[in-house]
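hey so i finaly got around to running the thing on M24 family metallopeptidase from Metabacillus idriensis. pasting the sequence first so u can double check i didnt mess up the copy paste, my clipboard has been acting weird all day
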Amino acid sequence: MQKARLTKLTDWLKQQDTDAAFISSTENIFYLTNFHTNPHERLMGLFVFKEEEPFFICPGMEVSQAKAAGFDGEIIGYADHENPWDKVKDAIAKRGQQDVQKAAVEKELLSFARAEQLQTILAGAELVSAEEIMNQLRLIKDDKELQILKQAAALADFGVEAGVQALQSGVSEMDVLAKIEYELKRKGIREMSFSTMVLFGEKSGQPHGNPGLTSLKSGDFVLFDLGVVLDGYCSDITRTFAYQSISDKQKEIYDTVLEAQLKALDASKPGERIGELDQIARDVITNAGYGDYFPHRLGHGLGISVHEFPSMSHTNNDLLQEGMVYTIEPGIYVPEIGGVRIEDDVYITKNGHETLTKFPKELQIIK
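ok and heres what it spat out for the 3d tokens, dont ask me to read them lol
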């Protein structure tokens, strides 16, 4: 699988008349090598050439794991007291690639210092963007990726259930958050996709609020937003509940978000313009009088990164394709009342879609 992905990148280099690519993000390295680690400040990178064999450089302490992950190209390790760029220079010279004229890099991620180092070694080569090709390669999920994403989604469902079970009067947001993550760790999950969100009452009206010691009381909205990392792939779910009671206004907000979410889901099929899904959901919310309270896009791509290509914005004119995975998560956030967001992970099938997250979305009043 990784060899086929590398071949696609090499083919792209040839088509673009680009001599080499330097891939340094942990996500794209994982996609191309099946090796996932955080090198912290240390250099880790995959060098791919139009005509020569690739090589991978990483801290020496990671070499055995990189080999075990299945990358069968040259793996170069280095010790902390060594300058890894010297080893890069030697490996490039061994391949006769010192005169590279054009190199593709992740321009949004590569630091200025590393770009300078690269251009020094490559004698001032022009740097062009590799972002677009990597986004396109990762856009369509294969069967193995889909199976992992389904399992990750099921664990996200479990996390919501654990949160619901922890709700009782007086409990704090952090108490419930701790319970969710504890139960997921007992299932073998080491890492969450992002900082778990548990928000009560008015704080649920903050789209990216920070959990704290706010205590749960009757009449509060309870918003959970969470996801897990499983075998390198992310899930992402949001569910909102009412605790013990709900006002007519809160119910109106909930029903509006649910209608928007379901209508956007119904439109999820191959050939549909991505921006149309956002517009469908936005129209429902705007027509209900809450347009000013839906401040974000409908969703985002999902895979190795919790936020990846494509952006589910009303300005995106790209078309949905079989194999895409993304979130649909409309929301309404009203100060002094609170907020509702309902989010699912969605896979585009040959004729429609499959919702990977399964936790019920109908309004639940937790007693």
